[in-house]
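tool_log.txt
---
The assistant was asked to compare two proteins side by side. It first ran the structure predictor on the initial sequence, then on the second. Raw inputs and outputs are pasted verbatim so the downstream comparison step can read them without reformatting.
(1)
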Amino acid sequence: MPLTPGDLNAALSRTLVDEWARAGVETAAVSPGSRSTPLALALAADERIAVDVFLDERSGSFFALGAAKASGRPAIVLCTSGTAAAEFHPAVLEAFHARVPLIVCTADRPPELRDTGAGQTVDQLKLYGDALRWFAEVGAPSESEVTTPYWRSVGARSAAAACGPPAGPVHLNLAFREPLVPTGVDITLPPSRAGGAPWVTSTIRWPRPDPVDVDRLAHLIAAETRGVIVVGWGADVDPEVVERFAGVARWPVFADPISGARQGPNAISTYDALLRSPGVATSLRPDVVVRLGAPLTGKVATSWLDASVPQVLVDPDGAWLDPNRASAEHIVADPSALLDAVSLRGPARSQSFWLRAWQEAEGAARRSMDRLLDSWTEPFEGRIARDLVAGLGTGSTLVVGSSMPVRDVETFAAPRTGVRFLSNRGVNGIDGFVSTVLGAASQSTGPVVALCGDLTFLHDSGGLLGAGRRGVEATFVVVDNDGGGIFNFLPQAGATADFELLFGTPQGVDLSRLAAVHGIQSESVTTADALVPAVHRAIAAGGVRLVVVRTDRVDNVARHRQVWEAVSVPGGSASG
């Protein structure tokens, strides 16, 4: 007896889900819809994959993004046809640029209904353009495919392509004919591999360093004493390897905290403030730079490292993360393996006046910065970032929002180990932050804390819907300056009478009451030293919690400038 379209839809969907589970996929975010029914039913029926349901497709896609970012495994996101698929686009872009594995599944009308005025039907073929690792128009399933490897191959390939290298999003467009629900007859799936293996097992290997590159880099280090190691987001490098390399080269390390490599005696954590001093920027200019990952977040250090300084950019995927086009050499290799190989060539320099000069500058700047921050009893955004990073326990994850929080963490956080940093820095947007945090929390064992501004929190307030029922634990620290604080640092702040209307954008929302609507408890912090205890209480209480810290945007700019002034003065001091 021939299978109905509903049975064929079910056979295709169950086969894909089985292949994804065999490939290690454990998470799916599903948004309700009719056309996606076959795959939604298959996901819900498979106990190997946890399913979370999201009314808003954008929230679902960023939840999956956060889960994949935290786990390193592909996550599935599913929606019905039409505009629902367009809601995935911001998360797809972030996954592509940040190299996060994502399996994007959009249900679609069959070919005969396209371009006919059928409801909820748009052109979904290659909807996300080139921002994909792979696209497949799977096609409406036919009975002849039940006995072939086609469906299993698609499932295995989609998971493998998402993992890379480079990792990123794949898009499967799935055309389902009605009826969308199977008849209930027994359905035989295509033959599978024995032992629970996927149809195709894909092995991921980063390129090993070429001996020629190792020799060249080792000679460069031996010849140049005035070098700097720069580590940005996406470096995917072992921080202990960076520390060993820096010890051999006797070079300072400029590591953005979100790289996870700001640690060890060579780490310079105050470079953003130091390089605002013309004297430091000139006297401590390097002769060579080894760069891992993306550029540093702040513009000051990135502009300082211009094309006049020879730079070696190392990336395992061959990405050209070089917006200033400053690098003179581009090496495609596993950064950890390359630095380890160079370190073994040794020996380490016995001393380095260059490194000592940077360490002395770091010590003086850190003392000046901390002395000034500690003198302010009211909350200041730079101190919030510093204290939060320092106050988290070992094994914690800090998810940092774009705009001012990621810049404040870079400028003010001291070196430390034991905290994992996550951030949506692929395209640096504030989109989907709340959902990203909750997705990351779903895949984390230790405490998860998020730092963001009020506009970032409000932009994805829909992500709070059902957050308390998802069984995740996350504490949101929201800096509430009633608007877009970063714009107060830009020329627009003094150049237009319509600044507040167009850029400051005060919303006047009571964030605690907003959280309460979703059943989320909150605490407001009014003094600087109350922040960390409040965060610890929220973590201990469990579930999803909110800590709100009110600040003033204009005052925040003034205090940042006081810190920069204090650091620029040897043994600097400034009153506040």
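(2)
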Amino acid sequence: MTRAWWRDAVTYEIYPRAFADGNGDGVGDLPGATARLGHLAHLGVDSVWITPFYPSPLADGGYDIADHTGVAADLGTPADFDALVTAAHALGLKVLVDVVPNHTSDHHPWFQRALKDGAARDRYLFRPGRGTHGELPPNDWQSAFGGPAWTRITEPDGTPGPWYLHLHAPEQPDLDWRHPEVVSDFERILVHWLDRGVDGFRVDVAHALFKADGLPDAGPGQHRDAHRNHLMPYYDQPELHPLFRTWRTLLDEHPAPAGAVAPRERVLVAEAGIFDRERLARYVAPGEMQQIFNFAFLECPWDGRAMREVVERSAQGMAAVGAPVTWVLSSHDAVRPVTRYGGGPTGARRARAAALLMLALPGAAYVYQGEELGLPQAHVPDDRIQDPQWERSGHTERGRDGCRVPLPWKGTEPPYGFGESAPGACWFPQPADWAAYTVAEQDGDPDSMLTLYRIALRARRAHPAADGPPRVEGPADGSWFAVARSDELTCLVNFGTEAVELDASAEVVLASAPLDGRRVPTDTAVWITPKEKQQ
């Protein structure tokens, strides 16, 4: 039997406003992305995930959506989206899009009606306040972006009204998923994009849709330790799983759009910030979603013992429900690996090794735009920061904008071929020292990060992973470990301070840095195969 495409797919994440600008206004758009799909096909990925391109006031980078079935005017038109899907499919690339079901924008027509008409508020979580005059929030819940998770409205007659819940920014009111019209409307939204040819959905904050009955207090320490998320009354509620099983049935049974070359199995991937492995596995139990991001891998420090534990525990947890691990090293919400692993030459060397480790592991993998170029986290000036964390933290947390700076494609100065706009008009300002990171500069350079990704993705495809948890071995001190992708391919990573000698029977397929003869230097990963397996 043919293995489902998503079980070992490598998906490339496109953040459209920072990927490629097709009309020269300084903002990336859908036509720009379509024109650059050849880069992804040459890279060797299997699918693309496009983060929100819907109409939005941009209070949270597009995740505050005012119309879940529209296309933002600055990013293109519905016809431009259709052209992107057609072009991607012609290149053999599947297309995933975001569905953002936890909240809407406060500009959404549903919420605007709710502000004016009390009868329309049932779609959201409006509650009376505590205190003598309702002047206190309904409970102690805190926003993930800082500050209370409640905002009080003013009624049309000018009197103080009830409070509404927003687990993120105030501009992102949470929906009440116990309201039947919310359920039916999101089924309609899924069908809309399925009929436009998408191959699946990444479900934003999938663990947050339902809140505990009665909205009890959550207590101190909220959002300080993500490993306690499953204990919060606003996360990981049991009602989630019947809902997602319904969505999976919809994706499995909804007919392919007219003109589709062949039926394609659609995929649901959960973004769920849950770290308890048994609870995490429930999201990908049979009949539910197929993938769930493994954030434990992304958040793991550069430490061999910790990394090995994440690899082994993640694989064991998913194996219990027959699902592949979905490895993720970076995203539009995370500090880029080069910076996260120490910055400078050390961070770059470790990021190269981490990329080879991730791509060798059995399961699916996601590559965030720019990781194939080895981009570091960029500094965004204070007056250009857009992330709501900046304001809500009292200017103590700079937020995520540094990984959302437009990609450098060619040239020696901004905007580096991102578009034809003036540098100052770019979505975010690009660093003046990014010329060495451009696609054009790295193309053909045998030592570049781009070349490493291209070779690794070809080799990954040539060495399919074995079923089941991978074999892992190495010393107890974590100075190095080796993980088997299959009988034919093993990845060894040296986290220690001393070089590791390769076994005489090992043939090197690919290394993240030059080897010293048969010795693997520190902060280096190497793919090896038994000599007798060589053709």
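---
observation on (2): The radius of gyration is 23 Å. The longest helix spans residues 344-360.
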